[in-house]
Amino acid sequence: MESSLRDKYEVVIGLEVHAQLKTKSKIFAPDGTEFGKEPNSETSPITLGMPGVLPVLNKEVVNMGILTGLALNCEIPERCKFDRKQYFYPDLPKGYQISQYDEPICINGHIDIKGKRIGITRAHLEEDAGKLVHAGADGIAGSSYSLVDLNRAGTPLLEIVSEPDMRSSDEARAYMEELRNIVRYIGVCDGNLEEGSMRCDANISIMPKGSKVFGTRAEIKNVNSFSALQRAIEYEIDRQIEIVEEGGEVVQETRLWDDNSRETKSMRGKEDAHDYRYFPEPDLMPLVISREWVQEIKDKMPELPEAKRRRYMSLGLSEYDASVIVEQMGLALFFDEVLKLGATPKIAVNFIMGEIAAYLKEDHIEITDTKLTPENLVELIALIEKGTISNNIGKQIIVDMMKTGEKASAIVEKRGLSQISDESAIKEICQKVADANPEQVARYKAGKVQLLGFFVGQVMKETKGRANPKAVNDLMKEILG
Ligand code: ADP
Ligand code: MG
Fold first, then answer.
1. Do 108 and 257 fall into the same domain?
2. Is 16 in the pocket of ligand 1 (CB under 6 A)?
3. How far is residue 222's CA from residue 196's CA, in Å, rounded to a whole number?
4. Based on the domain organization, do 395 and 437 belong to the same domain?
5. What pLDDT, on a 0 to 100 scale, did the predictor assign at position 141?
6. Does 417 score more than 90 pLDDT?
7. Ligand 1 pocket, 99 CB below 6 A?
8. Percentage of residues in the chain with pLDDT exceeding 70?
9. 306 CA distance to ligand 2 centroid (A)?
10. Are residues 248 and 117 in the same domain?
11. 289 and 337 assigned to the same domain
């Protein structure tokens, strides 16, 4: 779309994010929540919606709800309650979902994204539905029958609803990424969009620039990655502008993003709250959360991503490096261990962001899948700082350390990699290199001093990188005169 057309409109975005809480059992039933079990093996009469059963609230779900609320700067009201949301769907055997309607567990929060505050209206607890597996011969679109797997039914969810505060797909993505960081660092959710442990519905509308009245929103479902979220929003903005430019009106509806065809398609008209016939869940008492309970959880709050970034920057990391490490929680937790053991931050970061990150990326693994321990990295760094080995040798052996779990000192000893700092030994090699390259020596002497790099390179090659680079530089200059 022409940018001039885009410039006429302001985009308004609000996100509803469902985070699956990592409890062992379900929100109202004792069945397990483990992913990938045999279909319908993690069920119980409660989950199946048998007559006469009663839900029992899982306290750990409430703990995680409070913890997340506090991390999102929310208020935790003294009282919240559960409500029934009625609708029919084959993956919902009870015919209703237990959710929270007008008294959610968390209200009035916010998070800051690059200096901009995004409001969080509320976060409420609810149960997940089961899963339909479209099993017909023609695949999803034309399947002739579907199977239902109720293992997921009753898995606890926290739905986090933002204010319509975002104004671009970049902001929406940044908000979503930070939300994912937060739930992962506080340990309540895997934050895996691809596997659906975190799901996002994007509400999007447009209005003429300068207007104060929001346009009608469309709600986009089925975005399974950060990049898909951005693509879906960009597509939807263009679609809505086109409608308005042609004199039409955007209708309030739910649309599905198709990441293959890269477009949204209408799924259904948007229900209003009254369509669900919400009423207070008669089988559960309202939940009273004492201030002591909230304080107890507050006291256990781990360091949040923003605080971690700021701490890393105070150690001398650039904003970029700090953000990249925090994005990869496994690396950040490893880095913290290394710091605790007293390593120099800058050298540790260079290894972690360099060789280590590259190796992990190549094999699609986490640092905990390797045999490298924080202690071993710290020992390696100490060898470099003492001058026993060069930084280059360190880079060469770190991959072996990840593969074998061996200590740096053991590898260095076994392979004879310790740095040659002995002046006479280095001088001898420098002389040898000079003798072997008379032509270059003549050119150097005639004024082409840039050739020093060539000579130093030859010496390093000769010593397999083990010579102390500063000593080589000095001695080579001396020999070349
Ligand atoms: P529903 O369940 O009907 O989708 P919610 O209150 O749960 O309603 O969520 C509404 C979401 O839509 C919120 O994230 C809110 O910020 C966002 N929203 C509301 N109005 C607009 C609008 N005009 N344009 C874009 N987003 C909006
Ligand atoms: Mg909603």
1. yes
2. yes
3. 10
4. no
5. 56
6. no
7. no
8. 97
9. 27
10. yes
11. no
Work out the angle between the directed axes of helices 408-415 and 374-386 (0-180°, nearest 10): 50
- Residue 342 backbone zone (phi > 0: left; psi -120 to 50: alpha; other: beta): left
Atom of ligand 1 nearest to the CA of 164: 16
State whether 405 and 430 are in the same domain: no
Q: Indicate if ligand 1 lies below 6 Å from the C-beta of 254.
A: no
More confident residue, 479 or 77: 77
Give, for ligand 1, the residue of 10, 107, 203 to mutate: max count of ligand atoms closer than 8 Å to Cβ.
203
Give the Cα separation of 350 and 417 in Å (integer). 21
Domain boundary among 256, 273, 296: 296
Q: The whole model's pTM is what? A: 0.87
Domain interval for residue 333: 303-415
Q: How far is the CA of 233 from the centre of ligand 2 (A)?
A: 17
Give the ligand 1 atom nearest the CA of 214: 23
Q: What is the full DSSP assignment across 152-180?
A: STT-EEEEEEE-S-B-SHHHHHHHHHHHH
Judged against a pLDDT cut of 70, whether residue 143 lies above it is answered with no
* CATH code, 451: 1.10.10.410
The verdict on 193 and 257 lying in the same domain is: yes
Q: Ligand 1: which residue has its CA nearest to atom 2?
A: 273
Question: What's the chain's average pLDDT?
Answer: 93
Strand-strand pairing, 253-258 and 218-223: parallel
Q: Distance from the CA of 14 to the center of ligand 1, in angstroms? A: 6
Residue 303 Cα to ligand 1 midpoint, Å, equals 30
Q: Is 465 strand, coil or helix?
A: coil
